Fold:
Amino acid sequence: MNLTAGEISAIMPLVIPALGACLLPIAALDSDRDTVKWIRAAMFFIALFALTGGFFYLTRLWASGAQPSFGALHMDRLAQFGGIFVLVTASLAVLQLWDHLHQEGWVKGETLSLLLFSVTGMILFAATANLVLLFLALELLSLPLYALTATIRTRERAMEGGMKYFLTGAVASACFLMGSVLLYGATGSLDLTVIGARLGAGAVDPIALAGAALLLLGLLFKMSVVPFHQWTPDVYDAAPHPISGFMSVATKGVAVLALMRVMAVGMPAVGVPMRSALAVLAVLSLVLGNLAALAQTSVKRMLAYSSISHAGYLLLGFVAGTPAAYAGILFYLLAYLAMNMGAFGLLSALGLVGDEVGFDQLKGLGWKRPGLGIAVSLCLFSLAGLPPMAGFYGKYMIFKELILTGHVSLAVVGVLASLVSVYYYLGIPVALFMGKPSRQAEREAAERPAVLAPLAGATVLICGFLVLVLGLMPGTVLDGFARRAAEETVRLMP
Amino acid sequence: MITAWIDSHLLSFIVFAPMLWGLALLPLSRSQASLAKLLGLLGACGILVVAAIQLLHLPADAMGQVYAERFPWFTAVGIPVDYHLAVDGLNLWLVLLTAFLVPVTLLGTWNSIKERPGTAVALFLMLETGMLGALVAQDLLLFYLFWEAMLLPMYFLIGIWGGDERQYAATKFILFTLSGSLLWLVALLYLGGKAGSFAPGVMAMAVAGMPAGVQSTLFLAFALAFAIKVPLFPLHTWLPDAHTQAPTGGSVLLAGVLLKLGSYGFLRFALPMFPDAAARFALLLAALSAVAIVYGALVAMAQTDIKKLVAYSSVSHMGFIMLGIASMTVIGTQGAMLQMLNHGISTGALFLLVGMLYDRAHTRRIADFGGVALKMPIFTTFFLLVTLSSIGLPLTNGFAGEFLILNGTYGSGFAWGRALACVATLGVLLSAVYMLWMVKRVFWGPANAGEDSGTARLQDDLNPREIAVMLPIVVLIFWMGLHPQTFLAQSERQVAQALAVSRAPRPPAPAFPGLALAAEVKP
Structure:
């Protein structure tokens, strides 16, 4: 089989992480006690090399402006955006994992390998409009995540979380598949573009409508939108911190990108009635996510519920459904990448690897690690949507489009929800800087050797810096990156 | 070359230099706290000197925007946002007040903050950037950004260095302020979308073409955000908590500048942009202001804690400012302008003095004191002077401001004007009652003989540093009382212009022989 240069460049971003994923278990096989240190370092190097390799390949592709495709695989702007997004997230997660290696010793070759397989699946997920390929990618990205959730085998709730994720995820995948089948039955095609054209603008076939709804259900599950959110807190709680961060950002991100493709390309006709359903789900996510987050005492469960509410904000962008709103969603995703990886990174950076990290355990730590404290505070202010951080502009773009399209009441719900979120997000800076550690916590800290997690700390600093830069210069990123990626999708809209 | 660059970016320099200086001091703040404090103070003084020298050179007739800086900031999708800073008659003196209060605060609370003083100084400088930026921002979204950016340093100042209930107070402060400003953001985006710009002038034109109901809703969204900041009754409940829990310096800047931004927002944005809606709601605003005046005064009277008393007196005084603005007359608004400065100076000074007392006695309960005058005569002198200015004794600054406000309200031509002016005058009376009663209980009488009383713990009178802080304040109190025209000249035309936009029926300014000012005002 002869591949043209264009076809090769379309599949390269997938090949690089996949190759890395295949190499890693080999490196892990020979884990002799004496050489184990070197082998681990080599594994991390391979993983990082595969991720950065893919990243540089994609950025070059982006800079060249080429949008190669290979069969049903379209490495267009949106896919390139998705690839870069996933690879950056995964790189940050791998850097954070490095420190867990010293802390717990559970990071085996499989972990990194599974992570890279999942990354491959995610890139594919963002790069295709074919329903079979989409399903394939969905499984490729999900199956490693189920295993990754249960990675810490000594932890009871790890098994429980992994199983819970697997069972619910399987149902969602089945729904996705059933939806594809119904759409195929109604239109006779698996390609979203063709499906969109055949459905036309007229009255929608009920079978097609049911198919579309089931398809969306699969995606909304991955985004953890209410009422498909039940797994989120348990799974984030069960997984190691960097994996939780990776799942919350990358999985949600690619699900949003796929939803964008489906809404804009596949079902413009179905999309309009679907929007009111999305609006209801968005409001539910905002209300439930925020209210439940208020009641949490565990940092990770708080972040999990807050990620449900962020899914709500992202959905609001779909309700607006204008090109600018799509650009806003993409910008929001970039901001979310920085701020959420920073927030989860804090836990790794402080070496808090116990079963449950409560707010109490953070008390007074900001003064011990001021740089880290400031950086993570920036990330949390951004999550809360306070200017001049990146998160504010993400919300700004989405609310602006909502208002311009006449959904003022939804925008009001959105801002009120973010007001509620300020309270629980500030809980972390409050604990870091305003709390005094309890006697018991001080004793425990004295007993435990001071864990230094330089790489995880560095990722938090990077995230804090990104949050500020994206916030102070939103125009550059918005114009150069998010808007162009969104326009490619929107260009396909009839 | 550098001077030329600074000249063309003067405002950016004044606004951002404090923050950059504060950030630069952060690494020093742990190991070299006293050096960081000293450098922070010098930086703040430097900003004051630059601002005073440059801004007071304003050409007398150029009352429009001076030192304007404007370039498109981000125009990504949809509405362009400008980076537009300028000084004009409305914000000139508030900018100078801010630049003055920050070094005064730093010097006045030199030894009050014991833990991590260097970090606190850095936060004060960052707060200064937020306040100055909000004052000179001419683009509404930029204003919004500075407005929100102000919250975080103050939040940390209260939350880290505050009293026992600091976390509660800090959280309440930020949630209250945000609840107003987020709804305001929705209105801002709606209006920005309709107008295609965040420039107030362009937005005002868009507003003019809207139905009355929409105008009213938008105005209320703006007014809510500003009223919470002022704070106007009944949205004031965060203020006493924030004030009592905040460290002295935080209270000074909160009362001195942050609250002013609420009334400044009404004056600069809400009234000129929504003239019709403003006229419709003027009565409501004025009535709430009058209630705030009396209510704040009555509650202040019942306080047992000196700082809380001053905090409630703030509610009352800010009510005067809002009453002047709501009167929609040039005299009343000019009075509000002056009163903003007065309140910044007098209440700021009161908080400083209460802080000095607290540092010595470690209590603020009125009942713990008595006979302080015997032990601290210099302190008592200053406290009495500032008290008299706060009450509004003629010849002090408070009198000129309150007088103009009452005059403007009385002459506003509406039936309610006179009634409200009468109610507000009652507030003047009450302020004398609660302040003087407090002075009587704390300073006069025999020394509180209790073993553990506050008076017993007082050792030294004011030291030279504290006297040096209070002297310029006293000079300002009398200057503003004797010659208010210095501080009113620049804003006159601007205020008249802001009101001229309003199409509300305005009566002719009542002739007023007593003050030269009245003769010059030609609305």
Strands of chain A lie at 69-70, 73-74. Chain A is about 80% helix and 0% strand. Chain A has a mean pLDDT of 85. The longest strand of chain A covers residues 69-70.
